């Protein structure tokens, strides 16, 4: 029997089939990506995509909210419980939008924000120059310590005292070490700034108690829902009770219209999944795998920014290998390993072809891989880096990675039945 999609749009069906095959037949090391469960996928592809629900539970602008009110309330309750937060808002369309709403809730245009510079691992929305956030607000950026590759709280404090930002942002998109949210909070208090903590990458680790939580400290915490948290693509805001009304108003009607109820439904499911021992085990294994991969790479003569990892990701400094990030990422892709090239602190090269490679272990951990498989992947990375132009070597690695993939199949996450 043909699926509706196959029948109606064979061209798109074929492309989805190809993407499904690509996702299952490659080693996914992009640290922000993951594989959701079948339950999350089912909720995402549900009839809730057909419903407008502007407003909040029991305060909507459209009728027919008997079910949506319940679903959103459940998602909010689960978020509050799992993060021990006073208040949660689950409507943000993405992590970027959640950050912009967080600014809008407590700041006025022209106020100063201070976040980690993008080439040092910060996110675009932390005030990077091409982001709208640096145009609406006056942006001051801190960097990592050039020698240690770590957060430098003396520098952050000095900058904060000099520029007196109204909001300091903690959190990163490419930082392999634990982030001391308490220290950020101390500095924010010293200069009278609000503290926004963006845990987009690490929220799954925070839930599992493997990374300290910013919730007791920060005024507002933002996160995506699709990275280590392993839910649908979306964003979420947590905050102290005193900011609850402002945060809600900033998301709707300040920034967004109708919330994506199908996504909120899937967020509710993902939060239930995250509230289990299995999830804690998965999160612990992510870090074990990252540490093992780090050890393997160090053993093979690689340099890692900050010398290792405390979390789910590694930043490889490729300078001693005399290759740049982009050709390595492309060669890895041909060899069945998907990663992304990345800047390293004080990168001598350009952001379009930087000196680093960012890899992470959430997705391979979801597939069930453990330390032994990290050794295999570490060896494969070494071989590829030393043979970026040798197609026959890359082909050999690809076969090896295919075998590894077939031993650790992707949890069946697509609703579309396979062809035939
Ligand atoms: C991924 C990420 C975001 C943005 O999330 P999107 O859903 O892609 O908009 C924001 N902040 C940090 C730190 C991130 O890593």
Write up what this structure looks like.
The chain has 420 residues and is an alpha/beta fold. The protein folds into two domains: 42-274, Aspartate Aminotransferase, domain 2 (3-Layer(aba) Sandwich); 287-407, Aspartate Aminotransferase, domain 1 (Alpha-Beta Complex), CATH 3.90.1150. The chain has helices at 4-8, 10-24, 38-44, 66-83, 95-106, 132-136, 153-163, 181-191, 203-207, 244-255, 261-274, 277-299, 325-334, 362-366, 371-385, 391-407, and strands spanning 27-28, 55-56, 59-60, 87-89, 112-116, 138-142, 167-170, 194-198, 220-224, 235-239, 303-304, 313-317, 337-338, 340-342, 356-360. The strands form four sheets. It has a seven-stranded mixed sheet with strand order 4-10-9-8-7-5-6, sandwiched between helices. A four-stranded antiparallel sheet has the order 11-12-15-14. Strands 1-13 form a two-stranded parallel ribbon. The protein binds pyridoxal-5'-phosphate (PLP). Residues 32, 94-96, 99, 123, 125, 171-173, 198, 200-201, 224, 235 line the site of pyridoxal-5'-phosphate.
């Amino acid at each position: 029997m043909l699926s509706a999609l196959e029948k109606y749009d064979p061209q798109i069906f074929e492309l989805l089939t190809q993407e499904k095959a690509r996702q299952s037949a490659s080693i996914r090391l992009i640290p922000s990506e993951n594989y959701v469960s079948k339950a999350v996928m089912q909720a995402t592809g549900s009839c809730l995509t057909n419903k407008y629900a502007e407003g909040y539970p029991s305060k909507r602008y459209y009728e027919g909210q008997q079910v949506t009110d319940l679903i959103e309330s459940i998602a909010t309750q689960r978020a509050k419980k799992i993060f021990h937060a006073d208040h949660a808002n689950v409507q943000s369309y993405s992590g970027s939008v959640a950050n912009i709403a967080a600014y809008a809730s407590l700041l006025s245009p022209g106020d100063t924000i201070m976040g980690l510079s993008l080439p040092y691992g910060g996110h675009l929305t932390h005030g990077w120059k091409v982001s709208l956030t640096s145009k609406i607000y006056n942006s001051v950026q801190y960097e990592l310590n050039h020698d240690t590759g770590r957060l430098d709280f003396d520098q952050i404090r000095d900058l904060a005292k000099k520029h007196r930002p109204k909001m300091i942002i903690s959190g990163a998109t490419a930082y392999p070490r634990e982030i001391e949210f308490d220290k950020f909070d101390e500095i924010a208090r010293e200069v009278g700034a609000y503290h926004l903590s963006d845990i987009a990458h690490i929220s799954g680790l925070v839930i599992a108690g493997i990374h300290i939580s910013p919730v007791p400290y920060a005024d507002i915490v933002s996160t995506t829902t699709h990275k280590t948290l392993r839910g649908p693509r979306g964003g979420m805001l947590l905050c102290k009770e005193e900011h609850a009304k402002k945060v809600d108003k900033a998301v709707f009607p300040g920034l967004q219209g109708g919330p994506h109820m199908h996504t909120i439904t899937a967020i509710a499911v993902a939060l239930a999944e995250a509230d289990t021992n299995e999830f804690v085990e998965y999160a612990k294994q992510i870090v074990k795998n990252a540490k093992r991969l780090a050890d393997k790479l160090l053993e093979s003569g690689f340099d890692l920014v900050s010398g290792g990892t405390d979390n789910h990701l590694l930043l490889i400094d490729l300078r001693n290998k005399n290759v740049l990030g982009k050709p390595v990422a492309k060669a890895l892709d041909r060899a069945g390993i998907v990663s992304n090239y990345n800047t390293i602190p004080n990168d001598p090269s350009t952001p379009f072809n930087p000196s680093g490679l960012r890899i992470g272990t959430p997705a391979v951990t979801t597939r069930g891989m453990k330390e032994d498989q990290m050794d295999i992947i570490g060896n494969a990375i070494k071989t590829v880096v030393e043979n970026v132009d040798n197609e026959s070597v890359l082909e050999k690695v690809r076969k090896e990675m295919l075998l590894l993939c077939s031993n650790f199949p992707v949890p069946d996450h697509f609703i579309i039945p396979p062809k035939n």
